[in-house]
Specification:
By secondary structure, this protein is of the alpha/beta class. It contains 11 helices and 18 strands. It binds flavin-adenine dinucleotide.
Amino acid sequence: MKLDSYWLDTAPPLLSACEGPVDGQTDVVVIGGGFTGLSAAQALGKRGAAVTVLDAGRIGGGASGRNGGQVNTGVAQDFVALVAQLGVERASACYRAFSDAVDTVEWLIREENIDCNYIATGKLKLASKPHHLAHLEKTAEAIRREVDTDIELIDRSRIRSEIQSDSFHGGLLQRHGGQMHMGKFAVGLAEAAVRRGAKLYENAAVTAIVKDGSGFRITTARGEVRARQVLIATGPSRHGPFGWYRRRLAPIGSFIVVTEPLSPELLAQVFPNRRAYTTTRLMHNYFRVTPDSRLLFGGRARFTASERPSDAKSGRILQEGLAAMFPMLASARIDYCWGGLVDMSADRLPHAGQHDGIYFSMGYSGHGTQMSTHMGQVMADVMDGHEDQNPWRESEWPAIPGHTGKPWFLPLVGTYYRIKDIFY
Ligand SMILES: Cc1cc2nc3c(=O)[nH]c(=O)nc-3n(C[C@H](O)[C@H](O)[C@H](O)COP(=O)(O)OP(=O)(O)OC[C@H]3O[C@@H](n4cnc5c(N)ncnc54)[C@H](O)[C@@H]3O)c2cc1C
């Protein structure tokens, strides 16, 4: 079993990263080479800006290359709860923003001719308990009434036509959405940014950002560069001069296992419509079939950060969950196991804008493959003076109370969710 991301292990190599030191003067420095940063670099380059992307590690090696492979519409949290929190108008605007984000991914794939196995088969949220279906029904009614008619409630009598498992009592199908090979998308987007003139630097961790005249001086592990504008696209970064952001995000570990390739007959029987699947538990699971016929199965497993050796422990918990849900797959060999960090905000909504003259976009809360890509495009507009394009411009972003930048509270939150899940 490889303790590595399947997406990164099976992606083509990125051939166009810069060698040599980071130096000189540029229009925009983008810190972070995930989907937010790469999409922003592509869009800014298209407008004629000189862009330098700096990543502490491998381009696409953060959450963007380590996720569940789903490109879903709909908000991270339950729509009914979001309406209670924000009112119908703002909740509907949030939902629409996620729908637009799926469109942005599909458009970019076409525009830049990115080969990433995208299929638009929608998302099926599966009710793990009988009363969860009643809640999904209420959610479906609210979504259909306010914002999206392209959804369908699958009741208990029909759920077997969607998935061969005794674990579910129905589901909510949102058709607008898809899935793709995240490593291929990351490399494709990076090459597109380079075609638009961007320079990409790997292993260039940013250690300081200092105001310098009308711009900024950015210090990295590979040298210094000056820029007129800076965009921080670092997700839940645990190093570098990003304390203000760290106090606003909880870096929550999420883990994934991938099986050996499975027989097409078996897959056609268990997952006939090849949806992106999630479950309704608080400690939920998400899964899908990969382009080469493996099952990718993920979940929170443990409330802990992802660290290479201990990811295997989370993998074993996931393997047990997979076997309980799909007994016919219990003996499938596990070929990959890895973890990543989700940039969870307190309101589980993205946050983007400007702080101390520096632009930022993050906080996608586990629903960011589409939103980070979308926000990269949006931030290019915002940095060009069109602040009104930012769908998150009106939301406040206070620090998480008691959060000093180190997530000491995660084990407590984990215990709380585990207990809550029993009664939920
Ligand atoms: C296990 C897991 C499963 C997920 N599943 C899904 C899913 O199925 N669907 C979905 O929509 N979303 C999912 N997500 C969330 C989604 O992957 C992220 O929201 C999205 O990829 C965020 O992109 P990003 O570019 O903002 O951040 P990232 O991809 O994390 O990129 C940030 C980059 O910043 C770099 N960086 C950090 N600090 C520094 C520094 N000091 N200097 C320079 N560079 C730095 C990092 O190296 C990294 O490459 C999942 C996330 C995880 C972890």
